[in-house]
Amino acid sequence: MAQVAGGDLDQMSVLFQRYQTPLYQFFRRQGQSPAVSEDLVQDVFYRVLRARETYRGTAPFRAWFYQIARNVRVDYLRRSMRETAVDDEFGDTFTTDEHIHQDLEDLDQARVLRQALAAMPERKRELVVLSRFQGMKYREIAEMMGCDVNTIKVRIHRSVQELRQTFLALTERSAG
Amino acid sequence: MTHEQAQARLVAWMNGEIPDTERASLRMALASFPDLAAEWDLWEDLGQVKVEEPSPHLEKRLNAMLASFQEEEASATWRQAGKVQSQRGGWFQRIWPMQPALGMSLAMMCLCVGLVGGWYAGYQRAGGGDEALQAVRRELKDTRELAILAMLQQPAVGDRLQAVNYAEGLSTPDAMVLEALSRTLLYDTSVNVRLAAIGVLAPHRNEVPVRTAMQSALQQETSPLVQMELARNLSQVDHPEARQAVEVFLANPDLDPTVKDAVAKSLQVRL
């Protein structure tokens, strides 16, 4: 990234190769459809290009990068709330969990876990996704969210507790 | 180990701070605290929640976006250089357009409209007829097409959309305009511009270059809206290659089912 910030834009290809899959999966795990996730990935890299001079080599790249990804996602959610007419053409494709995960493995536990994750409040789900799936350390998440590491530890722990409660409730419901 | 200590260890493990060698012993220690053990298991089970990888088209799109961005940057640098030069230069440089492609095309268009309109008004007064009117129309059309071609090269999405809208107003677009719109359909990074280009190309979909461009675009397109428009247009073309392109598209197992259903239903294509 430092080379890109220095003006060597060809190095962006390296970033594409390294981050396109985790970034795509970051959006998918938060409920976006495959097509929307790919659009958002492109938007993130476009913003990275435009904001490359604001990157400071001393800060962790992932924290900076995922901050942009979060902003892109928030903008998308705001926009899609305003432009409901466009999404109507696809029915509920972009908003329901059923379709998003229909191609995934059909193991019961995994399905219930997915549902539990989808049922979580946005902010808590984002913390779990960043920590568990994107492999970000508490320190990086704290830097990205502008709070201290202990706060993040507590929030993640509480999010996991809530996820567990939801998971248990859904398991009971599906068993009953 | 107290509950509080065990919880701190669990949180550290979730952050990847516990070495693998201590993993088993920590899990055993957590057995005394069922709530923490359950959280450990849940964290591990989350590994089952898998999602697929992005389509192979994504990297192509990203590289196309990078190329477009680099062109945009080069163009901006050029404009900046022109600006500096004009600041240093005399009055002539100051009044010279900063964006030659777009600015000059529009200026030429206005000039031609004025000249031809003036000439036509004079001719009419002198008793001119249909021939003069045809000449005026031809001049206007050529000028408009030049402006469209220049505007399609602009980095701003708004300018490119405007160019496509201008093209829509042409009753019989020139082959060069159709070719430029086909390139837009294939390579433009904006979904809106690509969609608008399809709208203009649709009446010409039976022409070989346009049909071929639509077939190629359908293969590489990833936006559902554009995919649906392309598939609808191609399925209305009476040519085996067009039909085959739509069939191959619909048979793709990775295709968004909603797009597949919408195309199949609206066109009653046999799957």
What does this 3D model show about the protein?
The complex is a heterodimer of chains A (176) and B (271). By secondary structure, chain A is an all-alpha fold. Chain A has ten helices and no strands. The relative contact order of chain A is 0.11. Among the domains of chain B are: 3-37, no CATH class; 99-153; 174-271. Chain B has helices at 3-14, 20-30, 34-45, 57-88, 91-95, 100-125, 130-152, 157-168, 175-187, 191-201, 208-220, 224-235, 240-251, 257-267. The longest helix of chain B is centred in the first third of the chain and has 32 residues, at 57-88. The radius of gyration of chain B is 30 Å and the shape is elongated. The model of chain B has no long low-confidence stretch (mean pLDDT 81). At the A-B interface, helix 2, helix 3, helix 7, helix 8 and helix 10 of A face helix 1, helix 3, helix 4 and helix 14 of B.
List the helices and strands and how they pair.
The complex is a heterodimer of chains A (176) and B (271).
Chain A lengths: L1 H4 L6 H18 L4 H17 L10 H22 L1 H5 L8 H4 L7 H12 L2 H12 L4 H8 L3 H27 L1
Helix pairs in contact in A: 2-3, 3-4, 4-9, 7-10, 8-10, 9-10
Chain B lengths: L2 H12 L5 H11 L3 H12 L11 H32 L2 H5 L4 H26 L4 H23 L4 H12 L6 H13 L3 H11 L6 H13 L3 H12 L4 H12 L5 H11 L4
Helix pairs in contact in B: 1-2, 6-7, 7-8, 7-9, 8-10, 9-10, 9-11, 10-12, 11-12, 11-13, 12-14
Give the gist of this structure.
Chain A is mainly α and 176 residues long.
What is the assigned CATH homologous superfamily of the largest domain in chain A? RNA polymerase sigma factor, region 2, helix turn helix motif
Amino-to-carboxy terminus distance of chain A: 52 Å
Radius of gyration of chain B: 30 Å
Number of domains of chain A: 2
On the 0 to 100 scale, the average pLDDT of chain B is: 81
Derived structural class of chain B: mainly alpha
